[in-house]
Amino acid sequence: MNFGEPIQINQYLNEAAPNWTQDIDPMGTSKPQWLVPAVNDLATKMMTNINDAAAANALTLCATALLASRQRALSRDSLVNQIDCYLSLLKQVPYSKTCTLPDASAEELVAHAESLDKFVIESDTLGDIISLDRHQSILMTYYRNNIIHLFALPSLIAQMLIRQHKLSLEQIQYNVRKLYPFLKKELFLSIEESELESVVDSIVIELTRQELVIVEQGVVSMNQSNTQTLMLLGRTISETLQRYAISLNLLASYPELGKRDLEQKSQDIAQRLGRLHSINAPEFFDKGVFAALFSTLKEQGYLDIDGNCDIAATENLASLLYGLLYPEVRLTIQESVHQSEPLLEDASDEPEGA
User: Fold this and answer.
1) Is the pLDDT of residue 246 over 70?
2) What is the pTM of this model?
3) Strands 73-75 and 127-131: what pairing?
4) C-beta of residue 106 within 8 angstroms of C-beta of residue 87
């Protein structure tokens, strides 16, 4: 640790808890009230700064593209086109000042990724197909997750348009504002909510420049002649939205559900969804991710301090999320939520607000 670090921490504590030196128990038998909030806030700041400094490279970009494909496979041309889309987005709408991008072209990045011997490469009369086997698919989620936050907002907007085909720019802005707090908390995004409108406008302009969407009189629609790139971009965030949809629809159906039950049943449905739809990402079933979602639901007023649910607001958000899912995934979640009903009769005695 260099000399400057403790000084910076002291300055932080002086602002967050001015009397922090007086509240420390020399015997260590009790914790001051400011300790947990301060540690959590520092941890969030640290993770956010780490994400701001993300470095996109050949492997992370190719992993992101291939994992967005349902079969974990793309033709070489499609993979190059997708990487080119990613690079253009990151250059034209920079995520942060400290994020770094490769200087190489999309073609050079794909060639470099191939040389790392992580992919299965097969050839037919139409050219090369680049794919991931099951084992590599799981490993590649690590590389994708290192940069998934860079594409959270572009992917969300793309998914809206893939599922709805056309939306007014005003509706896109509204949807992003509703969902952003959840993405911000989970992915440690640094964009402030006051900046969202400007960022969304910039993303739409860039998607238009790439001819992935068409904007006419304030209405944004997908370009039907160029859908694959937009579809793959949208699928980058789709698994995250699926997890949100599981919890929100459980809560909308059973508003009396307590924290522990909501987390457990969300995890159970996520595991079923993963088996039925070949989702291998370890974080998809992580109970801790659902715990963070529960915390955001409280922060955003969907649950009050006692755990009571704002049913109208919850149903509205659940409906929004359902509209962003593919029909087969939506059906699985609906069936699973319905089948959870008998299990709720033996619900935990845990207090609602726990």
Assistant:
1) yes
2) 0.89
3) antiparallel
4) yes
